[in-house]
Amino acid sequence: MNRPGPWLPFLLAACLAALLPGCAEPPAPATPGGRTELVLWHAYRGAERGALEDTIAAWQTTHPDVEVRALAVPYDAFVDKVSLAVPKGNGPDVFIFAHDRLGDWAQRGLLEPLGFLADEPLLDRFQRATLDPLVYGGELYGLPLAFKCLALYYDRALVSAPPATTDELVTAAKAARAKDPQNWGIAWELDSLYFHAPWLHGFGGEVYRDDRDTLAIDSPAAAASLEFVRGLRDREQVIPPEATSALVTTLFRGHHLGFVVSGPWFRGELEGVEGWSVAPLPVVSQTGLPARPFLGVEGMFLSRRSTQKALAFDLMSALTGDDAARRRFTAGGQLVANTAVYEDAAARGDAFSQAFRAQAARAVPLSNRPHMRRVWTPMKDALSAAIVHGEPAAPALQKAVTEIARAAE
């Protein structure tokens, strides 16, 4: 069973406000038909949106006096809309988004903590790894729906089996190159911290040293991770010189690339392509540590300004339940957070989801602290300088730390 972390005490089964006299919620907004209205914002499209709407419809059959108004908000506008609308009381009751903005929203008082609402049996439905990213300042602020992380795609025409170590990875990548000069061994976005994270962690590095935003990206381990990747590019020559997203997709679709480090979204680029598989990333031979990508979680959050928190949480509980997760898994193609789904026969036979589930167990939650937003651009510059342009790794990382500190002043 997945036990909640030490950040949660034995939780109450109902909202404390509902137990205290005089703390009843105000009347909820009503539709013209007299039904109570709950507003839900999301950024889903296509099959994911359809699966979510199916689960909402199923909940409404048991709540005929409630109308859930689900609004699809463009992803690029989502953060600003939440940040502007919720404080004015014009936002949703419930919304779905990635966990990395959690710290900002929690600090601004936009989110309702769930400690008095979520009991232990409810939390036990989720993989433990998907709960921790939804905690900030010792409080649980969301319920997980799905997760994303990087893993290793490989072309079975060029690679006989997924590598267990980076030494095996290099050997297989060089063998793919040897088969045809048009082939390349491995590729990912070299100047992205998100894509570099597996090697940073695999060499024993990390982004932060503590909870006080003290950076660790200028450590010897971090420098070693950059030098490893630069060696793959320049010495081993298994990475394309210009590893753009478009080129990576074209090479892999054309069976001219042995490995790709990417996330579950890459499957959408491979429609009609056969002969590929996914596996967890290998162990770094130099350290004996697994390459560990960032783990991202899509959470469902309750607005602090909702006038119907108990009813809204009932909706959240249902939409993150096992039956709803099965619908999102089968119809929406999501890597859901619920453990029970992966015990079903359909999921046990799905190598794709099982590979990502195994990788998620060897991942590092992407920090949800507000300071993390300052890290991305300086680290992009450092990775580009050291890996693409061949500058010494340690000074490039030290420069990134200086730039991040200056931005925080």
CATH topology of the largest domain: D-Maltodextrin-Binding Protein, domain 2
Please write the CATH class name of the largest domain: Alpha Beta
Helix content: 25-40%
The sequence of SSEs as H and E is: HEHEHEHHHEEEEHEHHHEEEEEHHHHEHH
Low-confidence stretches: 1-26
Provide the gyration radius in Å.
23 Å
Let me know the CATH homologous superfamily of the largest domain: Periplasmic binding protein-like II
How would a crystallographer describe the biggest sheet? 6 strands, mixed
Would you tell me the overall average pLDDT? 92
Total of DSSP H or I helical runs spanning 4+ residues: 16
Decide which structural class fits the backbone: alpha/beta
Q: What percentage of amino acids are in beta strands?
A: 15-25%
DSSP strand count:
14
Q: Which word captures the global form? A: globular
**CATH architecture type of the largest domain:** 3-Layer(aba) Sandwich
Q: In the residues, how many domains can be counted?
A: 2
Explain the overall architecture.
By secondary structure, the protein is α/β, with parallel strands linked by helices. It has two domains: 30-148 and 295-365, D-Maltodextrin-Binding Protein, domain 2, CATH 3.40.190; 151-288 and 375-408, D-Maltodextrin-Binding Protein, domain 2. Helices cover 38% and strands 16% of the residues. The protein has helices at residues 16-19, 46-61, 75-85, 102-107, 120-123, 128-131, 166-179, 193-202, 220-235, 245-253, 309-319, 322-330, 345-348, 351-360, 376-388, 393-408, and strands spanning 36-42, 66-72, 94-98, 135-136, 139-140, 142-148, 151-155, 184-187, 257-262, 276-279, 283-284, 289-290, 294-302, 364-365. β11 and β12 form a beta hairpin.
